[in-house]
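Predict the 3D structure for this chain.
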Amino acid sequence: MQELKSRKEMDPQYMWDFTHIFPTKQAWEEACDSAEKAIEAAGSFAGRLSESRETLKEALDAMADAEEQLDKVYSYASLHKAGDNGDPEYQVMENRAIRLYVDFQTRMAYMEPELLAIPEDTLNSFTEWDGLALYRHMIEDMTRGRAHTLSKEQEMMLAMLSEPAGTPGDAFSMLESVDLTFPPIKDENGNEAPLTHGTFSVYRESKDPEVRKAAFETYFGEFRKYQHTLAALYGGNVKFDNYFANVRGYASAAEASLFRSNVPISVYDSLVQAIHEGLPTMRKYIELRKKTLGLDELNLYDLYNPMMEEVDFSISLEDSERMVKGATLPLGQRYQELLDEAYANHWMDIYENKGKTTGAFSAGVYGVHPYVLLNFTNTLDDAYTMAHELGHSM
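Done. Predicted structure below.
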């Protein structure tokens, strides 16, 4: 039985190349120091925004510069940690980056209250100037949020609370990606096989119902041992969401979340309604799957395996890459060139290792390129996931 490799044992050919962000860790350390100075510079404009349109532009330029530097500093640290959440060095790096972000948010707490305190006619005359054209939408967005913007002191307190508010999510990540391990199960040949976050998705597609059942019950059985802890962490997250929404005067946490993208709550409600209206079709599919598989009872672990005996969903990394390229041909030559670059230049971290963040994501790094996390196990779902995440990257 082969266990998961440690991060240091993985083949660099299938891993991210962080030198595209910073050539060395020392360069990252120096960038942290530089970002700290940029944060101080951006905070030095407090009390001066109404002086002139030029001063407002300088302040916004300083804020943008600090944020751009922070993005690279944080991305470098958080991506290292995503590769191995259990590595103490990466935990320290991410914590330093998070503290810089909290410092930035705290020092910039003056920005919205002070900008909204500028008389409307004066602010409009400022934004009509071509020098502020780049920030017009940002200023309009801040103005839209006038009713939910607090005083400078209150904004500062909320900014300082942002790091502790991430504790439930941090605790879940450490439990899921580092501390939680699973007992082995028996594969289709009766051999002992390792169960991990990555292999679970393989076993749940097995043609053998006993393998599917064992994988499902073993995997979720381990989570069930911590159900009260997980519920408490989730409850803490909900409480923070509601707290921030209430303090800012939103009707709900949902409204607060959607407000950032200027999406009315009615859009969310209509999506929920559309899903409910589609449930009869879903029930027909469930009945068809049950009948096709010849099962007396359809369980959750019977929803992912192929319905037809002759179907083989196994697909290699190389074939997946070719399939994604073929499927996206209608999107044009530039899309194809970027996919080639992603495959060749280590945009993707492909295989599962101990401590690696589960699932998949695409993280954009401004001025560099996106970084895609996968946990590839040679299934068709993995190929779809690759296409999905690279779609975000494009």
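The chain is about 60% helix and 5% strand.
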